[in-house]
Structures are given as C-alpha cells and as structure tokens.
Amino acid sequence: MIRVTVVYEAQLLRAALVELLRSGGVEVVASMSHWPQGPASVTSAPDVYVADAECLAPSAAAPAPASVSASIVEGGSALLALIPAQRPGVLRRAHAAGATGFVDKNGSKERLLEAVHRVARGERFIDETLALGFLQAAEMPLTRRELSVLSLAANGAPVAEIAGALHLSKGTVRNYMASVIRKVGARNRVDAIRIAQGAGWT
Amino acid sequence: MIRVTVVYEAQLLRAALVELLRSGGVEVVASMSHWPQGPASVTSAPDVYVADAECLAPSAAAPAPASVSASIVEGGSALLALIPAQRPGVLRRAHAAGATGFVDKNGSKERLLEAVHRVARGERFIDETLALGFLQAAEMPLTRRELSVLSLAANGAPVAEIAGALHLSKGTVRNYMASVIRKVGARNRVDAIRIAQGAGWT
C-alpha cells in the first residue's frame, strides 16, 4: 500500500483530503499544516507527499524552503503538488521545489489517486488542464529584480523604502516599475500588482 | 439522517468535503461548484447547505445572489458557511447571505459535524476562533461609497475611470481614496488595497 503524507494549511480541508485518499485505498501516515522543518528521517519518509502548492512556496520572495528538496531527496519520496487554476507562478514554484506530480485542485478524486500511484512508481503526472500553465510559467516576463520591486510595492512600501531595501536609486525603482507595467500590459502600478498576483508571480 | 448539499468551487476539495461528511454519518444529496441559479425546488431542498463562504459572495461589489436567500427561505434549509482565517469581510457577507452556522476552515472534522447537526435543528453555530472576526466585521470602517472606489481602484482603474463609473468628480474620488488610506491605517493607495483585500472587505 502506498504511504502518503498530506501537507495542507487549513485543518478542515486537510482532514477532508486525508478522508478522500483513505477512501481510495491509500495509507495516510501523517498530515501537517506546513512543510516539516529539516529533512524527514528516512525511516518515517512517505512514498508520496501530497501538498498544497501554495504551502510549498508562498511567494517568489519566499521560495520553497531547502527542507522541501532535502525531505524529498533524503527520504526518497515523491512530491505531488495540488495546483489552483490560473496561477502559473504557483506551478513554477512547485516545479522548482521538485514536484513530479501536478494535480489540478479542480480535478476529480480519480485523477488524484491515479497521480499518487504514478508518482509513487517514479513517473511524472501532469493534469492536462495544467499543461498550458506550464507554458505560461515558462513565459514569465519579469526579471528577478523586477519581481523584487513589485513584491515590495505590493506590500505597500513607498518608492523610497523599496530603493533603500534593494540598494537602488529611487529613479531606478521607478524605471523597474515602468518596465513591469509595460511587460504585463497593465494600466498603472495597482493594475500591474493585480495582474502579477493573479498569476501567482509575486 | 441529515441531508446536506455541498457548495465548493474546486472539485477536488469539494469531493474531499463530501467524503468527510459521509464518513461522519451525514447524507450528502448533492454537490456543486457554485450557488444554484434560482430557488431550489422544495422537494429537493436539503436540510443544510455547507458552502465555502468565498463561493457565496466573492466581493463587496458582487453581493450574495438573491438566489441564496431564496433557496434557504423557500426550501426551509439552513446555511452553514466555511470561513477562512482573518477575513472579516467574508464573514460579514456570509452573515448577510443568511448563514446561521460559521465554521473555521482551520477547524476539526468534529466541529463541522457538530455544526451541521446544530444548524439542522434550527440553532446557530459559531466557531469560537471566529469570534474576533465578528467583532472586526462589525467594525468595518469603510462606507459603501469608499468601498466602491477602492474596489474599482483595486481592479486597476485610473482615477478618471473611477470618477466616470461612479458619476463623481476626480477630486471627490481622490478625497475618498485619502479617506480610505487614513481609515485603514495604510501608507499609500497600494497599501490600502492590500489591507482591504486581506481582510476581505473588497
């Protein structure tokens, strides 16, 4: 029987996912709200982590903790990420964290169970509804520096504070913002933040 | 046995909630991604709708459809809303939609099942972890007009467009924005939008 650990922040939905997996004949050995600190001990490592992609790396500014990759590699586990619709940035970060399975949160129970079995055998699994998202993720138009500027702006920081935090001049910060607005096709700064957050880039 | 209809947008989590409720001895008679159009026929009305609060009324600009209240009243059903953490605005809209049960998405399976039984008997159920949220919801600082301005700004509309949409002068729109920034304790317009969206006001 395949041994699974569930990682999902909201307890009620985590319990519901555990119930769903068990009803499909999977053994759930653990469930947790956040990624465990440090690598899992090899004896307790599950075959598959089923994790909310939004738990893996909440933002571009906070990439997936090294413990995610460490847990997967050291424990010989596979990582299956649950992906929300229309969030190519989240997909991108799940891929960077080492996921080999990508299941649409809007998919069926049967797809999830098929994916668990496939990644446990060492295969990849990508929901067809997410395929276009990979292309959009590959086409992410912003540079790392532009993303940093945008993330700070989205948190409400004024230009002077962004400049100070990134060791840039205020003029350079304004240039980066103008570049972001142009690249994402936004009408202004607020619109650029809305578009980038909607896609999960920040 | 209590008859329940589940309303939750993401199919995988909807299926998981159905499994959770069934494992707790509740009869799930239907599940759907969005609130049904028009009132449910009385013969098919469940005892309780268990609905994601974010499905009920996605934003202040799009209040709960009349069909929510109509379904509840005509079918004699109770509405139990699943509430995300730290979103007093979502709580407020669930209350406005007629919910009598409020369950924290971060609560346990046992709490959800207790809540289902309580609202089915015509009682109220409020998770204690949500109590502070009710206070914050009651203290929502923004007027309806300020919320309209903020919602349009959050969608990326420039001042002139907001003024046109709401039949106001540009100066008045700027005054409303300044008032919003002051009331929510924000540093600037972007910060005000971030705070209001975080609380679920917009």
From TrEMBL, chains A, B:
Keywords: DNA-binding
One Pfam family of this chain: GerE
Domain HTH luxR-type: 135-200
CDD domains documented for this protein: LuxR_C_like
InterPro entries noted in UniProt: CheY-like_superfamily (IPR011006), Sig_transdc_resp-reg_C-effctor (IPR016032), Tscrpt_reg_LuxR_C (IPR000792), WalR-like (IPR039420), WH-like_DNA-bd_sf (IPR036388)
Name recorded for this polypeptide: LuxR C-terminal-related transcriptional regulator
Classification of source organism: Bacteria, Bacillati, Actinomycetota, Actinomycetes, Kitasatosporales
